[in-house]
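Let's see one such:

===
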Amino acid sequence: MLINGSVIGGVVLGGGAGLVQPPAPEPVVPRQSIVWDVRLVLGGEDHSHLLSGGARVETERDSASLAEFTLLLDPGPVNPFTFIGRTVQVYYRDWTGTGWVEELMFDGRVIRPIFEPVMRTVRCDCSDRLQDLIEALTVAQVNALVRGLWSADLFEDPAGRSRWDYAQERKSTVNATLQKRPGGALEMLPLEATAPFMLLGDGVTMDQSLVWTPVELSERVNVVELVGEYRFDRLRERHQDFFWEHPLLFGVGDLEGFCMWGNQGSTELPDIQQVLDETNGAGYTGIINPSDEDWYRLPPSGTGGLCDPPFLWKNPYPDLLLRGAWTGGMRWIQPITERYTIRIEAPTSMAAAGEVIQRDQFSADSEGSDRGEAWESAAFTAADPDAVEDALGDWVVDVRDVDRWTSALQCALSIHRTTLQMAHRENRLAVQMPTSDVMALELRHTLRVEDQRVRCQAPVWSLLHEFDFDAQTALTTITLAVSQGGGGVTDPLVLPPIPPSTPSGSAPGTIVLPTQLQNVDGTEVYDETLDGFAGNWNNVDDNSFPRRMQITSPEIPADQRDEFVAEATATYRVAIPDDLLEFI
């Protein structure tokens, strides 16, 4: 696929070990003499003859490649502005004795022409415009190129944002670098050492050119302490069973109790609607599965004839109760926070140099829903089909986006595993070579050095080519990114189990509502605070007790209503590869 003239490509970031042994690295053989040249193509035309002084090309992982050269212009009018944006290809040429061998060292565009009118020279600063090429991609193309992980809870929506920033976010989860290969290919290169492409043996490198720069201890992070919090709503529905029975029915059958009630003068009774209204008034917006079997209504007219002694009985009220059993349903929303305290560590590095800690935290919220907004006020007669009964006996629905949180946590873990891997690869070994000897070397390669009392094998981090026409030198400074820190075990990033988030407690028991009736002599004292039924005997003149049913919902413990924090911990070990490094 071509984007602005560039090919989107890449390499596999990981793979299984093959059965075929990699080829031995090609040793560099020193030469007595080198004949070299530089070919410059500017705007599609060969301008090599205008080069003055020399040229410089620098390529580095995760950075735009740069080139610099100066042109001595021919006589005649010139507009320096016309140089801006011209295409540039810089070729290095090596004479083999029978012909030239060329290697494309740089291709890009002029980004800054600096004109010197007296000497009639123009110095061209050039770039492969890596960032601009990434900006020209769609989000889908960035995804295909960089791969890696991404989470909307860790980063902002890529719409309307820099594609380069978005690519860096994805790249932060993989141990690889992003650059443009000379020739146009955008690619991701893994940062692990592979089979060496080339061997710089004894007496090959430029004398005293070797420079070792280790990473400072404070920058060699070997522990990341990460706290991730996921907040969501738990839709909680509690069922509370109630039972009320007229005192004359205690311990006897229904008919016998009714007969005792009628022969002893009868009393006021509650009705079904009164019970339901009081239940709703106590905060229970649902009455669960009421049925005729749950109510023992006052028997219909004529039933008194079945009693001993019989009595005349007429009942025009069909819903008066002698006994009732019902369930009130109450709903509320409880905030749940899952807090994951995670440690990602390189044990071997810690043992060698002590802990160098980096801390980070992030949070994610489950998005609300219309269901949650209407949860507390909606009337209902049964638990929702997707509700699950918990240890408190409540029916709960978690507004929890499992995939979203999994993505966020997996992304955060990958970022910080990469943090440890990259921090231990900040060591640099630089060495200088004649460009003709290493002209085929690229950033994708691993190099082995066995010279100047050093043995090292590591990935190439940067290449600096400096061509000086006056001094007749063409030298390349190669910098290797050397990983040191110790091997060991790398744990797979399997997410920790979801921590238990049900508060302590037990399912509510049945509330048996009491009864208070004004007695025959009128001396009974009415207790307005007492739940249950209150009324009067029908054969008593003093009807000082109100006929009422009173219900109060039990207080819900704070940890069952307020935010509940569930804690989880996990530790992941990261093995840091030790690239070959010996000073002998």
